[in-house]
Design goal:
The protein is of the alpha/beta class and 231 residues long. Helix content is 28%, strand content 27%. Helix 2 (57-70) packs parallel to helix 4 and helix 4 runs parallel beside helix 5. The protein is globular and about 65 Å long.
């Protein structure tokens, strides 16, 4: 039995999510030697290495296998994972000859989605084992959240995965990742009168949140500051 001590350096599994236009793809392009799988064609104006836009789950899996066998990069970026999820859904529907994931009885469609999504994350984990970082970018949605032990409800930023409550792909993705980083605009409230009773939003500095907050999910294993300027 081999016992080791201390930190073990390894490739990182990273999820970057935030609102449209915040700069997720640009930030991802600054990871070591990145190669993009551009699932939605959003990197056309960026000077980056990219594979062809995947049109099916099998095509996407072939691209991941190509990276595994040939090691053409130090970081694989899937931009975005929510569009990747659509390819998985399309595969499940085609296999079962269904028109909607809700057409399966007793939530079976969402069970199959969870299983296929888990297999997909396992393929990405294979890249981690050979030293290639994996970065997944994702869009966000705002949901109304209410905890049983709290008074009232509040808005919460969530990964735009698994649009139905029975789908668990967002939870799977967050559990899989070493780092979940939430990007957003930080707006400052400024008084507009002498009495300090009227305020307006000002600024819009782009920041990265690295730790959990009631209004968003984030985590890291590197003791990063809670908040980092994106620049």
């Amino acid at each position: 039995m081999n016992i080791t001590r201390g930190k073990v350096a390894k490739a990182q599994k990273v999820v970057l999510y935030g609102p449209e236009g915040i700069g997720k793809s640009t930030f991802a392009s600054q990871f070591p030697d990145p190669l993009f799988i551009d699932t939605e064609g959003s990197t056309g104006n960026m000077d980056v290495a990219r594979l062809d836009k995947p049109t099916s789950l099998s095509f996407l899996q072939q691209q991941i296998e190509f990276v595994k066998q040939n090691r053409p990069c130090k970081t694989l970026v899937i931009d975005t994972i929510d569009w990747g999820e659509r390819l998985i859904v399309d595969f499940i529907l085609s296999r079962a000859d269904k028109k909607s994931i809700t057409n399966f009885g007793y939530g079976e469609g969402f069970i199959q989605l969870e299983e296929e999504f888990g297999r997909f994350l396992n393929k990405l984990s294979d890249l981690i084992e050979i030293g290639i970082n994996v970065v997944l970018t994702a869009h966000t949605k705002i949901t109304k959240f209410e905890q049983p032990d709290e008074m009232g409800a509040y808005d919460r930023w969530e990964l735009k995965l698994g649009n139905k409550t029975t789908a668990k792909t967002a939870a799977l993705t967050k559990e899989w990742a070493d780092m979940v980083l939430f990007m957003n605009y930080k707006t400052f409230s400024v008084a507009t009168d002498d009495k300090g009773k009227k305020f307006k939003g000002q600024g819009g500095e782009r920041v990265i949140y690295t730790t959990h907050h009631p209004a968003w999910d984030a985590k890291n294993r590197h003791n990063l500051p809670d908040e980092i300027p994106m620049d």
